[in-house]
Amino acid sequence: MKIITSVVFESYNPRKDKSITLRFSTGEKTPDEIKAFHTLLDQYGYLCFKPNDKLTDKEVGDIDSLDTDLYDNPKTQSQRLRNVLYLLHKQDSQGFNEFKDYYQNHTDKIIEHYKSKLDKETL
C-alpha cells in the first residue's frame, strides 16, 4: 500500500539522535483515506516531497522501484549493535555505572579486534 497525496510541509524538529521529525498536513480526507494513513502507522518507507508540482508517472515508478531492506530490518546495523549492547549492560553492567562508558569500552574492544586482523601496511 502507498499513499500519494498533496501536503503542506509545516515544520521539522531535530532530535537528540540527529534524526529529524517532519510535520506535514493535508486537506480534508475521506474515511477511506484516513484508514489508509492509519494502516501505515509505524511502517518504514520512503517519503518524496516535491513542491508545487504533481509527481509524474516516471517519478512514481522510480519511487516504486527503490530497493530497501527497511521492510526486513528497520534498524541499521549500528542501531542493532547499540541496542544489543544496551541489553547486555542492563543484564550485567560489568562495573560500568553509565551505559555510555560501557558502550565506549565494548565498541573499542570490537574495533581493536578487527584492527588486529588488518595488515600492518593498511594502518
Explain the layout of strands and helices.
Layout: E1 8-14, E2 20-25, H1 31-39, H2 57-64, H3 77-91, H4 99-115
Helix pairs in contact: 3-4
Descriptive tags:
single chain, alpha+beta, 4 helices
Summarize the structure.
The chain has four helices and two strands; from the N terminus they run ββαααα.
Q: Round the Cα radius of gyration to an integer and report it.
A: 22 Å
Distance between the termini: 48 Å
Shape: elongated
Structural class: alpha+beta
- Quaternary state reads single chain
Report on this model:
- The chain is an alpha+beta fold.
- The protein is elongated, with a radius of gyration of 22 Å.
- It is built from four helices and two strands.
- It has two domains: 8-64, no CATH class; 77-115, no CATH class.
- Strand 1 (8-14) and strand 2 (20-25) form a beta hairpin.
- A two-stranded antiparallel sheet has the order 1-2.
- Helix 3 (77-91) packs across helix 4 (99-115).
